[in-house]
Design goal:
Layout: H1 13-34, H2 42-48, H3 55-68, H4 80-86, H5 92-101, H6 108-117, H7 123-134, H8 142-148, E1 152-155, E2 160-164, E3 171-172, E4 177-182, E5 188-192, E6 197-201, E7 207-210, E8 215-221, H9 223-236, H10 242-249, H11 258-278
Antiparallel strand pairs: 1-8, 2-4, 2-7, 3-6, 4-5, 6-8
Helix pairs in contact: 2-3, 3-5, 5-7, 6-7, 7-8, 7-9, 8-9, 9-11, 10-11
Length: 280
């Protein structure tokens, strides 16, 4: 018979606690370094609003600027040139954010920058730019606002085998992946949504062979996006827009909850009233 086996030594409580503390500290530092909620002062914001800075740091600075930017914010002029320059960024996420930030202050430079962004290739950039441009009561925002009240088509990014993970009636988030298209070479290309919305229809089902450019998703705008558009149309909508707006004053938005439908209906009625009063 073999003698008694040596007992495994338990880890030192102090050592274990130290390892836990180090792990928590690393996690906190990672969160702190990447969190948009971390405060930046004006100089730090200014330094990060540069095309050569990492995109996430630029987005962090833009989010901080958005929170404080207003017509009464002291020192606001120093940021304008850099913000306008970022409207030409190659990163669509930055252009989307810039389009929203420029609506926070009625500066002529921002107004003209937004006019350029309402024709951006990305629907999310166009949407944000149109909503922001309406803050200037600029009628050039109107056509994009009307466009944003209608469903949009999402097309296959490549030819191959499609597999979608969200079905009809499901919520899709801006920039979020809703499926994949696998090419004949084995490359997996993600299908992403350019706006927040509800999947209204899957014309080719949720899986199968697709051709590049074919419509695979029809996306209805989210309740929040519709609300933002209707608020903007109070300022720039025309009498001819009334039939489209009237739809949202009824029972449209079947995939929303009752509170959302009631809120949107009230906002639509308010927009119709404002348009009518301007036409008198």
């Amino acid at each position: 018979m073999s003698g008694p086996q040596p007992k495994k030594r338990a880890g030192s409580p102090v050592l274990v606690a130290g390892l836990v503390l180090v792990t928590m500290l690393v996690a906190y530092c990672s969160w702190y370094g990447s969190s948009f909620g971390r405060g930046l002062n004006d100089d730090q914001i200014f330094e990060r609003l540069d095309p050569g800075v990492a995109p996430r740091d630029i987005q962090h600075a833009l989010s901080q600027l958005e929170e404080r930017l207003s017509p009464t914010y002291p020192g606001r002029e120093r940021f304008r040139e850099k913000v306008v320059e970022l409207a030409r960024s190659e990163h669509v996420e930055i252009r989307r954010q810039v389009a929203w930030v420029m609506g926070r202050e009625p500066a002529p430079d921002y107004r003209e920058g937004l006019v350029g962004l309402i024709d951006d290739a990305d629907p999310g950039v166009r949407f944000n730019a149109a909503c922001s441009l309406s803050n200037f009561n600029d009628p050039r925002a109107r056509r994009r606002l009307i466009e944003a009240l209608k469903p949009i088509e999402i097309r296959a990014p490549a030819t191959g085998t499609m597999e979608l993970k969200i079905g009809e009636g499901g919520a899709a988030s801006l920039g979020g992946g809703i499926g994949l298209v696998t090419t004949p070479d084995g490359d997996e290309i993600e299908v992403r949504t350019p706006l927040n919305g509800i999947i209204l229809q899957l014309p080719q089902g949720d899986e199968g062979e697709v051709e590049k450019g074919g419509v695979i998703v029809i996306l209805e705008p989210s309740s929040k996006n519709v609300e933002n558009v209707l608020v903007a149309l109070r300022a720039v909508g025309l009498a001819e827009d009334a039939p489209l707006i009237q739809q949202w004053a009824g029972d449209k938005g079947a995939n929303w909850d009752d509170d959302d439908r009631e809120r949107i209906a009230a906002t639509a009625r308010s927009a119709l009233k404002a348009i009518e009063s301007r036409g008198r």
